[in-house]
What we know:
Blueprint (H helix, E strand, L loop, with lengths): L19 H8 L6 E2 L11 H9 L13 H15 L8 E4 L2 H11 L7 E4 L5 H10 L2 E4 L13 E5 L11 H14 L2 E5 L18 H4 L6 E6 L1 H4 L7 E5 L1 H14 L5 H12 L2 H23 L3 E3 L6 E5 L5 H10 L2 E2 L1 E2 L11 E4 L4 H11 L5
Parallel strand pairs: 1-11, 3-4, 3-5, 5-6, 6-7
Antiparallel strand pairs: 2-8, 7-8, 9-10, 10-13, 12-13
Helix pairs in contact: 1-12, 2-10, 3-10, 4-5, 11-13
Amino acid sequence: MAERRRLADRMPVFPWDRLAPHKATAAAHPDGIVDLSIGTPVDPVPEVVRRALAAAADAPGYPATHGTPALRASAARWLERRHGVRVDPEAVLPAIGTKELVAWLPTLLGLGEGDTVVHPELAYPTYDAGIRLAGARPLPADGLTALGPERPGLVWINSPANPTGRVLGADHLRKVVAWAREQGVIVASDECYLDLDWEGERPLSVLHPDVCGGSHANLLAVHSTSKRSNLAGYRAGFVTGDPELVAELLAVRKHAGMIVPAPVQAAMGAALDDDAHAQEQKARYGARREALRGALEAAGWTIDHSEAGLYLWASRPGLDAWGAVAALAEQGVLVAPGAFYGPKGANHVRMAFTATDERIAAAAKRLEALAG
């Protein structure tokens, strides 16, 4: 019998496991830990969403992989209302949280050994993980010239970006789309932070007509309710774009049983239909961002990019990423080292401002100890 090839052997060490000793240090602080590392929502799930979930709780039958017509219509309305993007509701496909979709998209598209998938040089680690799961080759690259004559099977872009908060301008996005169409390459745009802009140019979806000329051919856009609506615990996102690609994904997901539970579908639709709670949540995040940014800059830290999203991309002279993690952990503040996101992050840390107001205030006070 041939030796089994373990899928786990393709994967790197799960990055967050490496933070464990620093988390223990931070947790020993007399006033408790301030965890700014992962960026998990801490505020309540909106009441309108909880009501919709409860009302749909009597759901004994199998839900549809394609989602309900009501959910798909809600997603399409939200995209047009908030982001100027028109999609056919038939081209909306729910996902069990967007991390699931990011991790499995290369596999769902039939990519594998011999294929190359491009992702940003500073990137959410799940892009790389998903490429490895498929057996394809990851290629970190921020510019098309870096690809040379290579024709990848898929190109990931991420704007606003995790971890940096960088926003790709319309000109940049147009060039990516034009090149991809010339080469017959699929572009998947991770747009999970599209609603969370703070300064500078407002982020555009790759599906916006100013970017793609009104055609969604070769394009997919991935959206999440985790950050906008505090639904990380619900695992509720969706993908949309090229109708043929969405139909292809749907066909495979039906076989794989990748189905969003019916009550969660109802809750996601309610969240997408209601802008008031999202605006309130954004205001909370904005206040926390300002408090944390002011404290960091007063303590001698530099903030790069960070014009959108839920994180501050920060550095301090004399400290590499892990040195900064250690220094902050001594003050009871846990952050993510930029090295988690690629070699270019070796001198930065990513700080989430998703903690409570009280914990953000505690972090700001502790940063005073690192001033000078």
